[in-house]
Structures are given as C-alpha cells and as structure tokens.
Amino acid sequence: MQVYERDHHKIIQADVFEGLRTISDQSIDLIFCDPPYNIGKNFHGRKDQWESDDAYLAWCYQWIDQCLAKLKPYGTLYVMAATQNMPYLDLYLRRKMTILSRIVWCYDSSGVQAKNYFGSLYEPILHCVKDKNNYTFNAQDILVEARTGAVRKLIDYRKSIPTTYNSQKVPGNVWQIPRVRYRMPEYEEHPTQKPIALLERIILASSNVNDTVLDPFSGTFTTSFVAKQYGRKSIGIEIEESYVKIGLRRLEICSEYQGERLSKPLKKYEGGYKQLTLLEEGNGTSLYKEAALPISMQSMC
Ligand SMILES: C[S@@+](CC[C@H](N)C(=O)[O-])C[C@H]1O[C@@H](n2cnc3c(N)ncnc32)[C@H](O)[C@@H]1O
C-alpha cells in the first residue's frame, strides 16, 4: 500500500478493503462509489469479471458494509452499478439506509449502438442517507433552469398572490450529462471516467466546505479533483498504479513519480504524446526540450 497526501487530499494506492481499513470509523461526510461493474471492462489489465453474479454481489456487499462504517451518522452515500446489478444493491442498501433518490444518469449514443435490441444509454445511481431526518442537501447550490412555465412566462395561479413560475428548480432524478469523450479537455486514459459535471452536482448537493469526501474506486480521481475545486477534503482509493499517477497529477500532489514526469499526454490531434518547447532552430535542425511544469507542481513522489 502507498499513501500520498498534500493539503487535505489523500491518495491510497491499495485494494479497496486494505485502503478502507486505514480510515477511521464515522469520519467521512460523503462517499461516492463507482466500482467495477462486472461487465468485462479492462482496467489496465485488471479484468472486471467475477466468476459468478453471486460472487460479485458478495464482494459488493462487503465493501458497502465497510463504507457504511466509515460514514458519519449524518453522512451520505452514492452508489453506481450496472443496470442489471442495481436491483440487488438497492434491496441490500434499503435495509441499512434510506434511499432518497434513484437517479438515472443518461447520455447520448457514442455512435456504435445496438441494432437488435434497445441499447443501454443510462447508468443508475442510488442516493442514500444514514439518517433521513438529518442529512446535507444544498438545494440552492445545484439549481438548474426550469424549462416549463418560467420560459413561457406563465403565471402560477395556485399561489395566494399569483406570480410567474420560478425560473430555477432542483434537478429531478434524470440527469442528462454527456459522457467524457476523447476530445473533451477533462479526458484521461481510463475506460469509465465519470464527468466532472456529474460529481459537481453530487458534491455540491451532499457536502459542505471542509467536509471529507471518500471515493473507494477512484479511477481518474474525478471525485477528489472536484472535491478540491470546491474546498472539500478528499480521500481516494485506487488499486492500479497507472490511475494513481493520473490522480497525483490531477490533484497536484506531485509532478514526478519515481523519476517520471507526470504530464498529461498530448492527444493525437494535438501533435503527439510529449509536450515539447522549441529551444533553437538553425542549419535545418531544431532543438526541443520537454515543456517545464509550473513551479507550484514541482514536487516528487
Ligand atoms: C468504474 S472505475 C471508477 C472510475 C472513476 N469514477 C472515474 O471517474 O474515473 C472503477 C475503478 O476501480 C478500480 N478497482 C478495481 N478493483 C479494485 C479494488 N479491488 N480496489 C480498489 N480499486 C479497484 C479500477 O482500477 C477502476 O479504476
């Protein structure tokens, strides 16, 4: 196990259970769980495939229990899963927590779409709290434009003094947020990176400044990255070294990892994989050096 930490942001490179053991019970305000879905994805060589559905669910129940132990009494848990597995997790969780919302994150097609059945264009998310009478929900921080009455300037005659409809509302449980695509600035090399916009809504709604947010399957560390942008503390667990390196860079914990510069690879259409700066040109030759990182990021792991 390796632990990296800077300014209230901690990265634990470990198996989920080993990582969770290092965290004090009842110390976390918000947990976002986006585990492997048991659908055969390739996480840098680690196969997302259990020997049976039962084995997968037994594993999920185990980390769910461990996460609940880490959550404060008024804490919130979000869990993502494949559509076919979510009913089991829903049944399991509702015995232990209050499920406030069953959220559908939906997106448009990535191009290749099923032709012989209705292709899957959504992922379910459970929003659960330990205490249904006392939990964080910052409705004012996540308002969206109301597209109905307000846009048409309709008057709401149900009110004692009729006024126009509100132009903003709390989002419903169907969230239309684009998936992370290669050409988006936030893209990292990971098969199931979650969008910043998704985590912004979750973190702003269900935590406050200085709260601690935990993500036990961090991947590209989107959760920790967003937590940092909004003044929360973060703990991220991830087993794969290559994804930990993404986290170290995204959270600006260090700029070098075991002698390797942690710079974001250039995309193909940006001209290559290394950021180069032209030093000299003459006699038909050019001398380049790798671009320097900002001083604030020059630290080593
Ligand atoms: C669905 S992805 C998470 C993606 C992440 N939410 C993001 O935005 O990038 C699941 C992650 O769990 C990691 N993982 C798989 N098995 C693990 C384990 N036993 N312990 C810790 N992490 C694990 C995988 O390497 C993968 O990066």
TrEMBL record:
Query: From its record, what is one biological process in GO terms?
Result: methylation
Q: Show where the DNA methylase N-4/N-6 domain sits.
A: 28-246
What are its E.C. numbers?
2.1.1.-
Q: What InterPro entries does this protein map onto?
A: DNA_methylase_N4/N6, DNA_methylase_N6_adenine_CS, RM_Methyltransferase, SAM-dependent_MTases_sf
Q: Which GO terms describe its cellular component?
A: cytoplasm
Per UniProt, the enzyme's principal EC class comes to transferase
> Per the record's keyword annotation, is Methyltransferase included, yes or no?
yes
Q: Which family does it belong to?
A: Belongs to the N(4)/N(6)-methyltransferase family.
Put simply, this protein is called Methyltransferase
Q: What is the originating organism of this protein?
A: Vecturithrix granuli
Q: What is the lineage of its organism?
A: Bacteria, Candidatus Moduliflexota, Candidatus Vecturitrichia, Candidatus Vecturitrichales, Candidatus Vecturitrichaceae
